[in-house]
Each structure stands twice: as structure tokens, then as C-alpha cells.
Amino acid sequence: MSGTTIAGTALRAAAGVTAAGALGLGYAVGVERHWFALRRARLEVLDPDTAAGRTLRVLHVSDLHLRPGQRLEQRFVEGLAELEPDLVVNTGDNLSHRRAVPEVLRALGGLLDKPGVVVWGSNDYHGPKPKNPAHYLVNPQHRVLGPELPWRDLRAAFLEHGWLDATHARHTLTVNGLRLAIGGVDDPHIGRDDYDRIAGPADEPYDLRLGLTHSPEPRVLDAFAADGYDLVLAGHTHGGQLRLPGYGAIITNCGVDRSRARGASRWGSHMRLHVSAGLGTSPYAPARFSCRPEATLLELVPRSVPTSSTPATAGERGGRPPSARSRANG
Fold first, then answer.
1. Closest to 89 in 3D by CA, of 97, 98, 80
2. Full-model pTM
3. Among the four 59, 81, 130, 297, which has the fewest Cβ within 10 Å?
4. Which residues contact 96 (CB under 8 A, 6 or more apart)?
């Protein structure tokens, strides 16, 4: 084969790779980030003695990253009210613009009339800023905080509608006849967490002990597990945002392993963890690949009573067995 032929073949191959990359980027930016999904999961987390025969339907929303003009996302979120959940849990990063508070309230709409609880994320406190995309892959701890956002206005509106702020607070809430102990921390991703402020087991009889955090950092999950929480809900990871078929999330942007970037898993011998892949993206990284934006309707039911012949499951990913990379204690 002549040098000219080899060079021509190489150029055609390079052109093909470039075209495929451009098509993939176009799909990730123009299609998938607007292709909203409702996921459903069934978790056995309620107390089998006190909650026998009962069910709690929890809508988990996270990472809206709303800014003016995002009508597709707003309409999807507005439609979630038709699910009539028993409880709405919002794990933060609602805002991406200083004028986004009305957008968030309009999107959540009828959900604000349901019992709700919230913790905050870094992008509630600070607006997004441009940064080198390479940091997301090779230096995810690099943080660039933007201007302060009006999260206090959003918090006041949530409280006015009866939602609870679980940030460094413990609450008791009765929903659908079930007694819930709820505790939460501020965003560990930017070091605002102080678990000691809510530390200690919930000793009273509860049907569910529910923990909330924006970023699922292992130090916080370990603390919740040690205090006997049944379920922790988190967001932040965007499910990896860019996932490779057959491989999964490239990174998690936090301390949990890639297999826990979205969906349900176990953390330790008792506690379950659910991480939402979230509904939005930063305006400076407006792409999703193999990771559709999502909200999740969780059907919480009583735990099965284990028997000596039924070993405990080591973990799960959306109902599937755990991968070899999963760690029982995170």
C-alpha cells in the first residue's frame, strides 16, 4: 500500500471519528438532555412490625438547575403532580439563575400542596460559572463558585407551603398514617455538612427513618447508617451525566463509586441509598449521554423478615444484583 493510500485512509478514519463525535455531542446536547424520564423503584425499607401492609409513595426530585426559559423541563415537572405522591423529597440544586425562584415554584406547582422536605445543594447557594471541562474528568474536586443566588427566597416559599427544611435539622412527620423520622445535612460537596448537629439514633418507634443529603459522600452515609437510618436520598451526581454503554458513569463527582451514581443500592447491612440522576444540567455543561434526566417515584414497603435460609442481599442497582465494584459499606 502506497504512502498516499495510507494517508488517505487515515484521513477518512479521522473524519469518521470526528463526524461520530459531532453526532454524539449533538444528540447529548439537543436530544437527551430534554428527554425526561419518570423512573419507578420499589424499596423494602419500612418497619415490618409497625408498617405491615402499608405503602408510602415518595417522589424524589433533584438537580433541577432551572433558569428562565426552560419550558420543556418546567412542563415535565409540572406534570409530576398528577402522580399524587404521599411525600415529595427535594435534594437540592434547584437554581441556576438569580431570577429562577419563580420558575422553580411554577414548575413544582401542585407538588407544593403535598407534604414535602428539602435540603440544599451548592447550586442553590451559588450560580454556575464557566470552568475548564477537563476539571470535571481529571480534577472533580476543583470548585468554581459563582455569585450568590436567592435560595433564602426559595426556602421561604417552600416553608410557606408547609414543606420542611431538613438542613441540619431533625423532624417528625406523619404521612399516610406512617410516622417518619427525618434528618438532613447541608451540602457535603462544598464542606457545609456538620452531621454532629443531628447525630444520634431515632429511638422512638418510627415506620421509617429517612436521611437527606445533596451529595452522597461516604462520611455522611456512614454516619446515617451508624444512627440506624433506613433510607437516605441524595442527588448531585447527575447519574454521571455522561455514561458509556456497558461501562456506566465515567465519574460520580463525589466520593461514592461509579456503580452508585444513580438508582438504589445498599449501604451497609441495613440502610438503603437512592441517588437521583436529576433533571437538569449546568448551562455550561448542557449535555447528557446514556443518562436521561429523571425524577423517581419510590414505592416504599415493609422490609421482608429475613430467615436463616435467606442470606441478605449484598446490594442492588435499580433492582439488579450488585456489580463486583460495589462495596457493602461504601
1. 80
2. 0.85
3. 130
4. 65, 66, 67, 123, 127, 128, 280, 282, 283
